[in-house]
Each structure stands twice: as structure tokens, then as C-alpha cells.
């Protein structure tokens, strides 16, 4: 016999139970209620006195004397109906955040309103929801958690929206209170925000991580509308994603080797989580950690998320690529077994997005180096960092036997030419590629080596390139030519008065002339690149000129000191030849050499 077949009036009664408990203690049941998950043997009178739905069902079968009612669609199943039956029998139980949503839904389904009985279950549950739950953020989260199994009725009764609004309001209030607690007066008496103090207004982040993704999305959307800080939103997204995506997938952990088959049957759920979190991320730059973005991108690639989701992640990563690391860029290839070990196409799109954002930033705020004391602007600094990162990435993927030449060149050319002030890193990556792909044809080798500006190689790299047999002969000739030109320039700087002149006529041997049939757009892009190169070269010349001026000032001071010593020595000798203290006789005046000898002998005796 089912455990719910026993009469509830006899289950948990005590001496102080209400009238109905004692009345129906010895009365046999006259109706059976069948719900999803259980069957209850009860009495008609306490049920019809509180429930309008059961009253209508019993009244509709008065002639046949109904003895069983099926309520299979009752929200919450047997657990909810047991609480409603207890209320009908007058059994005391506590309304809590864990059952108030069930009570609201079951009271609505059974029509337990004040129309049929004063202070009925529906009004009691609503009062608790408004007076108690809505004032407490943790209780609202708990009620939302219970509503997951009560949809869509909980939504129709506005239980969900009321809890969401209460959570968003409480989080906003907590944030404002936390901001006021960090206000303090400085030594000058001015009020300012203490940035180093820990923000204690985000304690709700951990509470929200228990919600299902659809309800979590609605809560975060409401918080953004209420003005909760983007940093708090981002922290909540990171916490939620780490809990949901690290349960069965190791792709989130960069320290382990990712595998294709680590995701089980929960692929659809994890895919929805990734796409939802990406759609909820704040638009502000640098709010979401770039390591988290790369983790999401790995999951999006592995789970085959939508193109819009992946492009959004790539765009966000491209906006802060200068703070990325080499490990971040090493995204494994999950689906194409015969392709490269790492996902080169995704990295290429990220680099293209970064270059496009750099161009748009320069169009909006084109700051010339003439107006700045620093040789590089912040955008140029980011460009230099990304160029170094790309060179290291190329060196890392170069040994892959499946890496096609076109993809390698596409990665190398994704950044503008002025991004690399030194081509040592690019030369090293190309050398590794040539070593790993020895079957490369001579035209392909020459095409690959055209990426290198041999004039931008350091002395050590130039010496290595001059003896590198893997390079085409044309490239080795260029290296030797530029090394000779560098030597002549060094000699010219050492002997500026000579007629040796540095050779600037052949700076770009491998670049070729600009085609006359170039389109206006390409011509404009070429002019912009040349303009940037000229600015960088001007900055280098300015720094060189400052060094020369310092050397000139030092040389001038040294020359002045040397001339001063020489002048004093000559002046002393001339004074010694003159007699300015007495009248000399004709004999003395006629023999100055003799007088000088006497004076020198006296000085010698004194010493």
C-alpha cells in the first residue's frame, strides 16, 4: 500500500491539533485523490470547504457519488498536494522559502482562495511572499530555484518576475552601500573612493550560481537594467561559467591536454550556457578577463556554438589582444583530425579583428608623433606587443607538418608592416618553418622570405642569416648587402669628417615598386603604411640626434678645459719673462737669458 494512502489527519497529529483533526480521526475516508507521484485517501468535507476545484468536481458527480478524483497535472505533484491537504485538515506546518512557490501554485490550481474560505492557502502564501521573501535576496534566489519545476504557472502568477526584481533591487542597494563604505577623506580633506578596499557588495555572486541558465539570464538582464556595476556582472558570469562548464569538460583547464571526447551527453546544455554567457557579457572593455574569454572560445569551438557567438568572442579578444599570452593563443583543433594541431583560422580572425580596431582607433584619434615626447603612442605599444606575440605564435606552430604555407603567411601578414621594429622573431619563426618543411619549393621559399625585412635584423640575426643555407640565395645576398651598408654607416658615424656617406638609396630592395594600377583604396593604405614608417624613422632619428647633441656638449666641455690649461701655461711663461717690479740696468736688460738662469737657480735652491 502506498505511503500516501494513510489518512493525513492521523499521520502527525498532537494534543493541540485543531477541530478537524479530531473529527476525522475515526471517520473512514470517502474519496481518493490521485496525483502525479502518489494516491491519497481523504475526506470530502475538509477538501471541498477549502478547494474550489475539488468542490466543482464533487458537485459535478453528485448523482454517481464520486469516490476518486485524478489531478495528474497538479503543479509540484504529491509533495505539493500533501501540503495543501494538511492545510485543509488544519495540520500546522511552516511556510518557508523552500515551499512558498509550491503553495502559491497548488493553491491557484486547486482554487484555494478567500472566495471559498477566509485566510485560505493562496492568501497566506502570497502574504509570505510579499512580506518576507521579497525583503531578502537569498530567499528570493531560493524561491527562484524552486520555480524551475513550476514553470510556466509560476511565471503566470508573477512569482518569478517579483523575485527577479527583488534580487536586482537588493543587489543594486548592496552595491551603493558598499561604495559609500569605501568613501574616505584624504590628507587634504577631500572625499575620495578607496580603490584598495575590498568590495563587499558582491556577496550575491555565489548565490546566483545555483540557478538554472534561463532564470540566471533573466536575473543578470534585470541587474544590468538596474545599473549594477559591469565589474560585478562580469565576476558573476565568470563564477557561473566555471561552475557549469568545469563539471564534465576539461577544455576549460588549460593545464590539461584538451580532448575531443571529454563532453558527454550534456553538450546541448553546455552549448546553451556558453552562448547565453557571451550574450550577457558587458560591452565595456577590459571588464571581462581575457583568460576567461579564451576559455569560453575554446568551449565554443569544441561545442560548435553559433557563428555569432564565436565572432563576438573573437572581437572581444581582439580588443585586448595586447595583454594575451602565448598559451592563450594555442587553441586546439577539436573537429578536423587531419588539419593542424592548433586552430590557426580562429587566431587569424582574432588578428584581423585586432588590426581593424587599430585602424578605426587611428581614424578617430590620429595623434602624430610630432606632438608627443614619447616615440610611441599607447596604440603603437599595443601593436608592438601583439607583433612579438604573433612571432612567438608562428615559431610555436611552425613545426606542424600539416601547416600550409598560405596559412603561415596569412598569420604573418595579418599585422601591418610598421608593427615590427625588429624582425628577429619573424626570422626565427620562418627559419623553424623552413627546417620543418624541407620539401618546400624554391619559389615558395622566396615567397616566404619576402616577409622578412633584412634591414631590421639585429647584428646577431644578420650574421646567422648570412650563413643560413635554408634561405634562398637572393635573401642571403640581401643580408650581405645590408650588413655591408650597416658597416659603412658605422664607419661614417665614427669618422664624420670623412667623405663616407651612408647608403639610403636601397632601403626596401625586397618590397618592389608600387604598381601603377593600384586601386585608390590600396594606394591610400600604402601611403598610410609609409607615413607610419616615416614617423617611426623620424622618432629614431630624433633619438639619435639627442645622443649626438649630448656627445657634442661633452666634447665641447672637454675642449674648453683643454684650451684653458694650455692658455694658463703659456700665460705663466710670458709673465716670467717680464720684470714688472723694478728698473733693470742696461746689462740686465741686454742679457735676459742670464737673468732667467739666476732666477731659476734661486727657485731651485728654495725648493
Automatic annotation (TrEMBL):
Q: Does the keyword Methyltransferase apply?
A: no
The residue ranges of the NPH3 domain are: 202-486
Q: Name one Pfam family in it.
A: NPH3
Task: Please list the residue ranges annotated as the BTB domain.
Answer: 29-97
Coiled-coil zones: 524-565
Region: Disordered, residue numbers:
582-607
State the family named in the UniProt similarity comment for this chain. Answer: Belongs to the NPH3 family.
Its protein name is: Phototropic-responsive NPH3 family protein
> What species does this protein belong to?
Solanum tuberosum (Potato)
Amino acid at each position: 500500500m502506498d505511503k500516501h494512502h494513510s489518512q493525513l489527519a492521523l499521520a502527525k497529529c498532537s494534543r493541540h491539533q485543531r477541530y478537524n483533526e479530531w473529527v476525522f480521526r475515526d471517520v473512514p475516508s470517502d474519496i481518493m485523490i490521485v496525483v502525479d507521484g502518489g494516491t491519497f485517501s481523504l475526506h470530502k468535507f475538509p477538501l471541498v470547504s477549502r478547494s474550489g476545484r475539488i468542490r466543482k468536481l464533487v458537485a459535478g458527480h453528485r448523482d454517481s457519488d464520486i469516490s476518486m478524483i485524478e489531478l495528474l497535472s497538479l503543479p509540484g505533484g504529491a509533495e505539493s498536494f500533501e501540503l495543501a491537504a494538511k492545510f485543509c485538515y488544519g495540520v500546522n506546518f511552516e511556510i518557508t522559502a523552500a515551499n512558498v512557490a509550491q503553495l502559491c501554485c497548488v493553491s491557484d490550481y486547486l482554487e484555494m482562495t478567500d472566495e471559498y474560505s477566509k485566510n485560505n492557502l493562496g492568501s497566506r502564501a502570497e502574504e509570505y511572499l510579499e512580506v518576507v521573501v521579497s525583503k531578502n535576496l537569498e530567499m528570493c534566489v531560493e524561491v527562484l530555484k524552486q520555480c524551475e519545476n513550476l514553470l510556466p504557472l509560476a511565471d503566470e502568477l508573477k512569482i518569478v518576475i517579483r523575485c527577479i526584481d527583488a534580487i536586482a533591487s537588493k543587489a543594486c542597494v548592496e552595491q551603493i552601500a558598499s561604495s559609500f563604505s569605501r568613501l574616505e577623506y584624504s590628507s587634504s580633506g577631500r572625499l575620495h573612493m578607496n580603490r584598495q578596499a575590498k568590495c563587499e557588495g558582491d556577496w550575491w555572486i555565489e548565490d546566483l550560481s545555483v540557478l538554472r541558465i534561463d532564470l540566471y539570464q533573466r536575473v543578470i538582464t534585470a541587474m544590468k537594467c538596474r545599473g549594477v556595476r559591469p565589474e560585478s556582472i562580469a565576476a558573476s558570469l565568470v563564477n557561473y561559467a566555471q561552475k557549469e562548464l568545469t563539471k564534465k569538460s576539461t577544455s576549460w583547464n588549460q593545464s590539461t591536454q584538451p580532448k575531443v571526447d571529454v563532453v558527454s551527453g550534456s553538450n546541448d546544455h553546455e552549448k546553451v550556457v556558453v552562448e547565453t554567457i557571451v550574450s550577457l557579457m558587458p560591452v565595456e572593455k577590459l571588464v571581462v578577463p581575457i583568460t576567461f574569454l579564451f576559455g569560453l572560445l575554446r568551449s565554443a569551438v569544441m561545442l560548435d556554438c553559433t557563428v555569432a557567438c564565436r565572432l563576438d568572442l573573437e572581437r572581444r579578444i581582439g580588443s585586448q589582444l595586447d595583454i594575451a599570452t602565448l598559451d592563450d593563443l594555442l587553441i586546439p583543433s577539436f573537429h578536423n583530425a587531419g588539419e593542424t594541431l592548433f586552430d590557426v583560422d580562429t587566431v587569424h580572425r582574432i588578428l584581423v579583428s585586432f588590426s581593424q580596431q587599430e585602424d578605426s582607433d587611428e581614424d578617430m584619434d590620429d595623434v602624430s608623433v610630432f606632438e608627443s615626447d614619447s616615440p610611441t603612442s599607447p596604440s603603437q605599444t599595443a601593436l608592438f606587443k601583439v607583433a612579438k606575440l604573433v612571432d612567438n605564435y608562428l615559431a610555436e606552430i611552425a613545426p606542424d607538418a600539416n601547416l600550409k604555407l598560405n596559412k603561415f603567411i596569412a598569420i604573418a601578414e595579418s599585422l601591418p608592416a610598421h608593427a615590427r621594429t625588429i624582425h628577429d622573431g619573424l626570422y626565427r619563426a620562418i627559419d623553424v618553418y623552413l627546417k620543418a618543411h624541407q620539401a618546400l619549393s624554391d619559389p615558395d621559399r622566396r615567397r616566404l622570405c619576402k616577409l622578412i625585412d633584412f634591414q631590421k635584423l639585429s647584428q646577431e640575426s644578420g650574421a646567422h642569416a648570412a650563413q643560413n643555407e635554408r634561405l634562398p640565395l637572393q635573401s642571403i645576398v640581401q643580408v650581405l648587402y645590408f650588413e655591408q651598408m650597416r658597416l659603412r654607416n658605422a664607419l661614417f658615424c665614427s669618422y664624420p669628417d670623412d667623405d663616407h656617406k651612408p647608403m639610403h638609396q636601397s632601403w626596401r630592395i625586397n618590397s618592389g615598386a608600387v604598381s601603377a594600377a593600384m586601386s585608390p583604396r590600396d594606394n591610400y593604405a600604402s601611403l598610410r603604411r609609409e607615413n607610419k614608417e616615416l614617423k617611426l624613422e623620424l622618432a629614431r632619428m630624433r633619438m639619435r640626434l639627442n645622443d649626438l647633441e649630448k656627445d657634442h656638449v661633452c666634447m665641447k666641455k672637454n675642449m674648453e678645459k683643454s684650451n684653458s690649461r694650455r692658455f694658463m701655461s703659456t700665460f705663466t711663461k710670458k709673465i716670467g719673462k717680464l720684470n714688472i717690479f723694478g728698473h733693470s740696468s742696461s746689462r740686465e736688460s741686454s742679457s735676459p737669458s742670464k737673468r732667467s738662469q739666476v732666477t731659476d737657480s734661486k727657485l731651485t735652491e728654495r725648493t
